[in-house]
């Protein structure tokens, strides 16, 4: 297994999508590479106020309102 995270993610995705179209393999590779970041950047509902990101902070050190710019890079529009 490679020490390069991108290559390791592509290897994991390739094993799971063997025999599928190149498009499916590419999307699976990208999702696998983003998985560790998505695990950190989760939506958290608050009792009062808007949902927040579990990782991102605003200028005051509070959890930033969901979705942040980073969240928009990690999740599809349907998932936001």
Describe the overall structure.
The protein is α+β, with helices and mostly antiparallel strands and 80 residues long. The chain folds into two domains: 1-37; 41-80, no CATH class. Helix content is 46%, strand content 14%. It contains three helices and three strands, in the order H-H-E-E-E-H. It has a three-stranded antiparallel sheet, with no helix packed on it. A hairpin with a 5-residue loop joins strand 2 (52-57) and strand 3 (63-65). Helix 1 packs across helix 2 (22-40). The longest helix has 19 residues, at 22-40. It is elongated, with a radius of gyration of 16 Å. The termini are far apart.
Summarize the topology.
Elements (H helix, E strand, L loop, with lengths): L4 H12 L5 H19 L2 E2 L7 E6 L5 E3 L3 H6 L6
Antiparallel strand pairs: 1-2, 2-3
Helix pairs in contact: 1-2
Profile the largest sheet. Answer: 3 strands, antiparallel
Secondary-structure-based class equals: alpha+beta
| Distance from first to last alpha carbon | 33 Å
| Helix percentage | 40-55%
Q: For the CA atoms, what is the radius of gyration? A: 16 Å
Outline the low-pLDDT stretches. none
Write down the domain tally. Answer: 2
Percentage beta strand: 5-15%
Topology as H/E string?
Answer: HHEEEH
Shape: elongated
What's the number of helices? 3
The average pLDDT is 92
How is the largest sheet built, in terms of strand order?
A: 1-2-3
Using DSSP, what is the number of strands?
3
